Amino acid sequence: MELLREFLRAYKRVSGQLINGSKSSFIVGRQVSSLQTQAVQDVWGYQLNHLPVTYLGVPLYKGNSTACLFDSIISRLRDMLQGWAMTNLSHGGRLVLIRSVLQATSLHLLQVNHPPKSVLITIERIFNGFF
What we know:
By secondary structure, this protein is mainly α. It has helices at residues 2-15, 34-44, 71-82, 91-104, 107-113, 117-130; strands at residues 25-26, 47-48, 53-55, 58-60. It has six helices and four strands; from the N terminus they run H-E-H-E-E-E-H-H-H-H.
């Protein structure tokens, strides 16, 4: 616990950011006892969480990915484009809009998370449908 406390103090000092305990949570492995888990909750006041979780709009999980983990990203893409679907944008304007939506979305994280092919196909269909 003392190592974690020192790490968080160093993080606060270096980053200048405060840690909001009411928004913070922690995840433990199977080998961690309920007694240890309860000790962390008691000392830090953080809530216990379980995988999969969403952090900054991106799913964090262990093991093979499934399409449902990426539903929030797909919904966000759909919502971003849906508002523009009925406007009279030119083909070039639509292309510029798709590029800006892509830049606003954490697509680089899709490369790291290795989503199933079905997710990539769905994203491609959303963009193709916009044209």
